[in-house]
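hiii so um. not sure if this is the right channel but i have a protein structure encoded as tokens and i wanna go backwards to a sequence. like what aa goes where. can anyone help
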């Protein structure tokens, strides 16, 4: 019987063993990447991994390098591997179109390309507005900027998931067991696939970070307040902004200062990113809107270690929480960020 697994992933090196185990249980693997002409050469070993990655935009180099190694192994084992991400494919075409000297006004308004352009323009514009406000704006204005960005980002993700679910339908006929890679924010992809398949094929979601939490003996999730806000708008685009959304936006301002920015390259048993994200989520859940407003004017100019120290002291000194009850952060000194 045909079955589909959607593996919701975080792009961190420590998640790759979990992904490898899932991928090996399926005949076909669909990656969350736009088709690249050099991909097959890299899989065969005709192109080095480093040379392949030089030609694409890589946000997480350690993760990407290790994932390429895994994909080579899977290719040798006979797995069918495909790249399917039409939104990003259209976006690359738009970049090329504009780089050739064309203007955005030349993109036909009734085209899919224009829908992609508009979604990306709106989300990027809202993000740039946030960057401007967060430097000098008031706490209230910055919270509103976070909410505005989350709404446009949700529109973009909803379109991405819609286009990808449609594209995947054309690839799902030949194989019985199918693995679909997806970032953890693309929760609606599974829902859209089920609807388009009319529930004739089981679609099983697996949240890989949650599997890691089980290994660590932890409960909870790894959706930070900003992701929670975006997910709320993905599934409920027309909801009014309530106190809950403002609290999530306020906590997101603190969360972004606490989260580790560097990419750790460590053995899979350490799970530094999962532990760090869980600690940050648990920390900001201890803060109410007033707490975030008091912390924001100082924390926005601090580096991550200093921000953690400030928040820790606030929770102990102002909130009167005991040291033992506070989550423990993993910092840059706990492991090396390079391979």
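sure thing!! here u go:
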């Amino acid at each position: 019987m045909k079955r589909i697994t959607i593996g919701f992933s975080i792009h961190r090196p420590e998640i790759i063993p979990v992904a490898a185990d899932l991928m090996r249980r399926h005949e076909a693997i669909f990656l969350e990447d736009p088709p690249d002409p050099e991909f097959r050469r890299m899989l065969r070993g005709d192109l080095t991994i480093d040379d392949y990655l030089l030609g694409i935009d890589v946000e997480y180099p350690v993760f990407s390098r290790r994932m390429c190694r895994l994909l080579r192994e899977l290719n040798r084992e006979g797995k069918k591997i495909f790249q399917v991400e039409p939104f990003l494919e259209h976006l690359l075409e738009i970049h090329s179109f504009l780089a050739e000297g064309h203007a955005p006004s030349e993109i036909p308004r009734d085209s899919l390309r224009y829908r992609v352009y508009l979604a990306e323009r709106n989300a990027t514009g809202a993000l740039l507005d946030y960057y401007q406000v967060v430097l000098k704006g008031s706490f209230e204005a910055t919270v509103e900027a976070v909410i505005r960005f989350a709404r446009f980002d949700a529109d973009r993700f909803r379109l991405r998931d819609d286009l990808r679910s449609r594209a995947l339908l054309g690839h799902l006929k030949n194989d019985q067991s199918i693995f679909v890679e997806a970032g953890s924010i693309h929760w609606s992809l599974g829902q859209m696939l089920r609807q388009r398949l009319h529930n004739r094929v089981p679609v099983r979601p697996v949240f890989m970070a949650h599997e890691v939490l089980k290994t660590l003996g932890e409960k909870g999730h790894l959706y930070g307040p900003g992701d929670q806000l975006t997910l709320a708008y993905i599934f409920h685009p027309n909801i009014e902004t309530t106190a809950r959304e403002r609290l999530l936006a306020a906590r997101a301002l603190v969360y972004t200062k606490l989260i580790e920015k560097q990419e750790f390259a460590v053995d899979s048993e350490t799970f530094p990113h999962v532990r760090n994200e869980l600690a940050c989520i648990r920390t900001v859940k201890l803060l109410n809107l007033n707490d975030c407003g008091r912390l924001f004017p100082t924390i926005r100019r601090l580096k991550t270690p200093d921000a953690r120290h400030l928040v820790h002291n606030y929770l102990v000194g102002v909130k009167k929480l005991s040291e033992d009850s506070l989550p423990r952060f993993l910092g840059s000194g706990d492991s090396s960020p390079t391979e």
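oh and The chain has three domains: 3-84+171-215, 87-167, 243-329.
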